[in-house]
Design goal:
Elements lengths: L1 H24 L1
Length: 26
Amino acid sequence: MVDAIGVQRASLSRAHQQHVSLTAHQ
C-alpha cells in the first residue's frame, strides 16, 4: 500500500513538473 502511494505521488509530482515547464516554455 505504501508503495502504491509513493508511485502515485511520484507520478503526480512528475505531471506537475511537466505542466510547469510547459507553461514556463510558453
